[in-house]
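Contributing new records

If you add data, match the layout below exactly. Sequence lines come first and carry their own label; structure lines follow with theirs. Keep one chain per record. Anything else will be rejected by the validation script.
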Amino acid sequence: MSLGTVRLAAREFARRRSPEALIDMGELGSARIPSFDPDIERLLGIGRFRGPVFA
């Protein structure tokens, strides 16, 4: 849970620093920062990966 929280915070920080949604990776060129993180949602169990809720 804490690993997913740290990764989510790092991606939010990278998104805020990059208004064009691109990050420079040196010799590898540039990469797009996605606005949707299914890997982190799966890790944290949020979004569409959340279990069923009964009221």
